[in-house]
## 1
Amino acid sequence: MIALLLALGSSLAYGCADFLGGLGARKAHVLRTVMVAAPASLAVELLLWPVLGASFGPAALGWGAASGVASAAAFALLYKTLAIGPMNVLSPVTALVSAALPVGVGLFQGERLGMAGLLGLPLALLAVVLVSAGHGAGAARPSRTALLLAFGAGAAIALQLVFLHQAPAGSGVAPLIIGRAVSSAVTLGAAGILHRRLGPDRPAYALSAAAGVLDSLANLLFLLAARGGDLTVVAVITALYPAGTVLLARGVLAERIHRGQLAGLGTAAVAVGLLALT
């Protein structure tokens, strides 16, 4: 139950972070947004170090660095995806892709679910699909480029989560610190190489920093949830984060929520209840 609640908290934080990051990427080049978000996220994790502890062993360093490379790709691809829009379609696409790989890894590593879990897991995946049902009359349709970016973002997010899960349980927040340090270095290096293409627009500092802080919180909650529960369940619950993005897009940007998406939110609630019984 604790792992489930942590995963739900991670999902909510990811959804809010994605919305703010997507808004920030609409105001300036996506790399300018990530240049602010990634260091802000690192600062939060450094502040957590004295509280939660960290053990920088070889395994923590290796898996943390791998998650950092995936995180840098996820930041850039996801914020670019959401900047193109529509958020209420593209965010769930990334979520579905990001859920599939960790579920496969968890099952491959021998995780098994009870009857409630066997019912709840496919329902949760169905909920992610339904939340993406934004193709009704008058709905904005994503371009092929936007869909490809969404699939790439989902794959990068999935790899980041899998790599974090592989880090030793006793390493504290070391994998998060290493991962964010690597992602910050990759982002700043890419921005230095491509500085002439970034344009004159300044990043939305407050939006970008808030996105980074929330992303850091989401990573921490996911790591704690994955250490206390099955990756198969935790990854799917975390992948429900588009619900937060969709609701914020509706309230702030007036993007439409369709019946299929409402059905998806209801299905998600039932799935979470079933998974809580596993």
## 2
Amino acid sequence: MAAMTPTAREAAPKPGTDDAGTAPPAAPARARRRPRVWRGAVLGLGGAYFLIPLIASFVFTVHTPGQGVSFEAYTALLAADGFTESLLLSLGLAAATIVLALLLAVPALVAVRLGAPRLRSVVEVMCMLPLVVPPIALVTGISTVLRWGPDHLSRTPLYQTFLAVQNENFPFVLVLAYTVMALPFVYRSLDAGLRAVDVPTLVEAARNCGASWVYVMFRVILPNLRSSLAGAAFLTLALVLGEFTIASLLGFRPFAVWIVSISGAHARMSVAVSLLSLVITWALLLALSRAGTAPTSTPGAPDPARKTRGPRTSSRTSPKES
């Protein structure tokens, strides 16, 4: 037994050396650094894939062979015919489409989640149908209905409705078409948010406390769906600002159609306005994503800033202590 037990001199670690069990091996450390290198290489290639064409387009707009650098293509945008009108029209169509799509999807999905879970598959199929129908078929059906309406409803009050939805200042028919095209993206975003929240329990608790359905919707359900609502608005905005087929075939001129219309006569200006539209779209999308991730302050919830503060010591004494 004495031979098998280590002596104190053998068991004690040598000075200047660490314990073998706590020292990290050198080989795993190298293995951990390799994925970081590959990750940086992949991110660098992806960034170059997106940035190099944008940089080349910007150089094309500001550099003229034999004349040097000039920002005339950007300064002439504000004075270009139809630039401001088409941009404001696209932004107005995007805002109306977001509002209409959310007004249709949010109550429907909440009602299905609370009262009829078996209808979820039916609602999903109906919302996903626009992915199957191509935009060219959709615009063909819309144009057929718009031509058929005035011929058969000229003596009814609906005749003025057909004329109003085709107003060039704000074509509401485009809002209806864009809402149908955005339904798949809105549905997926809201369905993911509703799956992450126990909606029946929240609604039942709020109703037991005496809250009305309007209060439950605006103060209980919608704050918990903030990120999902922002994601749905995010995708709808990108869809409307970049849509060309339906607006062009129906004869309207939003921002995407205006860019294509000036591309033949002003090549540099068309590329400049395309870059500007990317910047505007990115800024709006960043604002929506920022709004979706902003923290919400629930009434009665403790303030996290107060937790970091220490207890206040008052120098005043109460009348009882004095």
## 3
Amino acid sequence: MKMPVTITQAEIKKIYKPINPYTHKGIQGHATIIAGSYGKIGAAVLASKACIKSGCGLVTTLIPKCGYEILQSTIPEVMVVTSTHEEYISEIFFEIKPQAIGIGPGIGQEPNTQKAFYEFLKTNKTPVVIDADALNILSQNKSWFTLLQADTVLTPHPKELERLIGNWNSDNEKFEKVIEFSKKYRVIIVMKGAPTHIINGAAIYQNTTGNAALATAGSGDVLTGIITSLLAQGYSAIQAAQLGVYLHGLTADIALPETGYQSFIASSIIENLGKAFLSLD
């Protein structure tokens, strides 16, 4: 296994693009988040809010009907479309043409949701970030791996990763399997952990930000929103993944002196994104 490239501030500054002072929302990127099911609309809220707070101009979120009022009142800045089913996403359809899509947080694994995800994978040509239940659905339907377009970003936590690639007996074996998977399907894998690693074919990147405060419910949903936002703004998939994990970790480093480990929650990541971005300007 070759040595990873460390994702430091110096590395990030090479890819970070400051906002053009003459920009407008129409050219800052339009992202779509596909998330939520009954009892897990919070995942859609977190991913959507993180997405709009990471700089893209417009966010449209697709959720089941039960989440409509929650989303509209919690994040008025985000547009909402609903699937026909009350409690889960039963079909994936929207009339807009986003620049990037984030799919999976809190969607559950209902048979109709799985079918909708399959139809989506078959036809989608937009850059996509796949997380959470969408990864679990993929793991149960390994023949769908071939439907993933090149440079799709997958963001598994250790258990989701194991479901995707099978188990491993050593760190070395884990990396070998992930590299093989990444090469075979031409996808980018964000291996969430302490530290987080990004695998892009034979290239390995190791993040340098973050701490144990990030081990909290919803943290991954926020990361999905951030990476999707960056993709929509025109960063390449590997740049969006690197910048995304760097900023996500940095929020925890910035907030820790005030929150401590215990009271830092996923919303704290979103609240500290501004300071994280300011550190790059």
## 4
Amino acid sequence: MHKPLARALALCLLSAAPLWASAQNYPDKPVTMVVPFPPGGSTDVIGRLLAAKLGASLGQTVVVENKPGANTGIGAAAVARAAPDGYTFMITGAPTFTLNSLLYPNLNYDPLKSYEYVAIAGSTPFVILTNPQTGIGSVADITRKSATQPLSFGSFGNGSTPHIAGESLAQLTGAKLLHVPYRGSAPAMTDLIGNQIPLSIDTLVASLPQIKAGKARAVALTGRTRSALAPDVPTVAESGVAGYDFETWFGIVLPRGTPAPIVERLSKEIQAVMAQPDTRAKLQDLGFDATYQDPAAFRSKVTAELDRNVTIIKAAGIRPE
């Protein structure tokens, strides 16, 4: 072997040795969970639930650190730059991985190259809503009614997953839909209830109170399967749009280069936590399913959703505001 190459390999092994040695005793000090959102939101609530559970199973305190801003970019970049020793990880929503890089060109992280994927922990579908006065009761009704006059649909923001889901529905069914972005779920729901817009797409958990009160009608769920929270509501896929699947999920990642034993340990601990009956019950009370996917399935999901979303975004001409 050439001496320069041997020297380089030796240096790599020496630099990696401390990390691999520390992996044997992981964790031996408190761990930080970064949440790239303000306190109180769904990601923060789920993160704190997992932090308490993981702290008990790991035998070390898991400290939640909120780093909001730049559409999760501030927190995501901080974790990407963190030491790859297992003591800093992040929980965040799907758009951090599957939308931001397609909409914002100057990110300080790469969704596929900056992280070691640990697990998907928790998910919930979106729901297509209508005002009961519209007479719309199915996906077929949306396509039929929009053929004579385009239908507006609201979402909680330009470039949000509900926006992408609505554009995908239009592209797959031929429905004529016009997007109306709102600054959050509440104003979109207000206009839907007031019949200012005929359709809206929102999270199921945020919509359930109005659905139960009869002020909004659930047309279809956007995920692959029905939800235990609304078992009578069909999915879009069931309604004739094969393969349609949009949901919000929560991914947990470590900085790239974190030793594999630490990644595997954390992933298995999360899997065990998600299987606990009280965890499942608490998540269901919050409106989420206690789903778990391992690192390989997580990375495959991100890759597939990036490929899907870039096609939808280009076809719809979506640009960030």
